[in-house]
From TrEMBL:
CDD domains in the record: PAP_phosphatase
Origin: domain of life: Eukaryota
Alphabetical list of InterPro entries matching this protein: Inositol_monoP_metal-BS, Inositol_monoP_superfamily, Inositol_monophosphatase-like
Pfam families for the chain: Inositol_P
Keywords for this protein: Hydrolase, Magnesium, Metal-binding
Protein name: 3,5-bisphosphate nucleotidase
UniProt record similarity statement: Belongs to the inositol monophosphatase superfamily.
Residues the record lists as binding Mg(2+): E70, D129, D132, D251
Species annotation: Gigaspora margarita
Cofactor(s) recorded in Swiss-Prot or TrEMBL: Mg(2+)
C-alpha cells in the first residue's frame, strides 16, 4: 500500500460529500434575490454543513489528529427562531450525505472540532476550507472545497474539489467538476475571480510580455488548480487586503502541494518558501507567486521589480 493511502481515500470521500452539500445549497437556497440583497445566509449554511461533514469523517478515521478550520459554531447558537431554523437546515444537509446521522449536539461538536490553533510546530494536523471562493459560489461560478494533511510543517496530502471547474477551459460548454489530488512525492492527479483589478498585475504582464487577457477565476484554490492543470501559466496574489492581513493556511496548503507535485513552483513575493507551522496564519510570508519552472524566475523578478517601484 502506498504512503497515505488511507488518508487519501478518507480525504477524497470527505471532499466529495462536502461538495454535494454545496451543490445542494446552491440549487435549493440561492436565488436572484439572494445575490441582489447580498444575503450571506446560504454561504453560511454551506460553510457549516460542509465543515461538519468533513470534520466528522476525518475524526472517525483519525480521532487523534487536530483539525484547523475557519468556522466555529458560535454563529449557529442561540434560541431565536432564525438560529433554530439555521441549525435545522445545516443538520439536515449534513445528515443527507453522512452514513450515520448526527444530532444537534454532535453537529455543533463536529464543527468546533476544527478549532485547533495550529500552534503545534511538530504535529500531524488537517486543514479544512469548506467553501473557498464565496462570490463564485453565490453566482454559480468557481469555488472549491479543500483539505490538506500537514506533518511537521510540511504538506503531505491535499484534495481539492472544484464542482464548477470546466474540464476544458477552451470549451465553455464542456463538462464541469474536477477533483485534484496530490500526495507528496507521488505527483499530482487530476480527475476529470472576478475581483477588483490590481494595477500591479498589468505592469508585471507588461514586463513579461504577456498580452493575453487574464483568466478570471474565483477561489484561490481554483487558481492553483488552473496552473497545476496547465490551463494558466501564472497565479499571483500580490497585496494583502489590509495592512494587518495574514494569509490563512487552509486557503493555501492544499494548492501549494498540488503545484509542487505537478512540477510547478510556488513561494511568496520575496521568493521565500511557505511555512505552515506558525498557527493558523502564514505569518512569515507575504503574497503568493505560482508559475512553471521555465518562467518562475522571470515572474519573481518582474514581481519584485514592480513592488519595489511602488514602495
Amino acid at each position: 500500500m502506498s504512503a497515505f493511502a488511507t488518508e487519501r481515500a478518507v480525504a477524497i470521500d470527505a471532499v466529495l460529500r462536502a461538495s454535494k452539500i454545496c451543490q445542494k445549497v446552491f440549487n435549493n437556497l440561492i436565488t436572484k434575490d439572494t445575490i441582489i440583497k447580498g444575503d450571506k445566509t446560504p454561504v453560511t449554511i454551506a460553510d457549516f454543513s460542509a465543515q461538519a461533514v468533513i470534520n466528522t469523517i476525518l475524526y472517525k478515521s483519525f480521532p487523534n489528529d487536530p483539525i484547523v478550520g475557519e468556522e466555529n459554531s458560535k454563529k449557529m447558537q442561540g434560541d431565536s427562531e432564525e438560529k433554530k431554523e439555521m441549525r435545522n437546515k445545516i443538520l439536515s444537509l449534513a445528515n443527507s450525505v453522512l452514513d450515520t446521522h448526527l444530532n444537534e449536539k454532535e453537529l455543533l461538536d463536529s464543527i468546533d472540532r476544527g478549532n485547533c490553533s495550529g500552534a503545534h510546530m511538530k504535529v500531524r494536523m488537517w486543514t479544512v476550507d469548506p467553501v473557498d471562493g464565496t462570490k463564485g459560489f453565490i453566482r454559480g461560478g468557481n469555488y472549491a472545497v479543500g483539505i490538506s494533511l500537514i506533518i511537521d510543517g510540511e504538506v503531505h496530502l491535499s484534495v481539492i474539489g472544484c464542482p464548477n471547474f470546466l474540464v476544458n477551459f477552451k470549451e465553455p460548454e464542456s463538462k464541469k467538476g474536477c477533483l485534484f489530488i496530490a500526495v507528496k512525492g507521488q505527483e499530482a492527479l487530476i480527475c476529470e475571480s472576478f475581483v477588483a483589478k490590481n494595477p500591479s498585475l498589468a505592469k508585471i504582464a507588461s514586463i513579461l510580455g504577456i498580452t493575453k487577457e487574464p483568466l478570471h477565476i474565483d477561489s484561490n484554490m481554483c487558481k492553483y488548480c488552473a496552473v497545476a492543470r496547465g490551463g494558466a501559466d501564472i497565479y499571483l496574489r500580490l497585496h494583502p487586503i489590509a495592512i494587518d492581513f495574514e494569509e490563512k493556511i487552509w486557503d493555501h496548503a492544499p494548492g501549494y502541494l498540488l503545484i509542487k507535485e505537478a512540477g510547478g513552483m510556488v513561494a511568496d513575493m520575496d521568493n521565500k518558501p511557505f511555512r505552515f507551522y506558525f498557527r493558523k496564519q502564514l505569518k512569515t510570508n507575504r503574497g503568493i507567486v505560482v508559475a512553471s519552472p521555465k518562467i518562475y524566475e522571470q515572474v519573481v523578478c518582474a514581481v519584485q521589480q514592480t513592488i519595489t517601484k511602488e514602495i
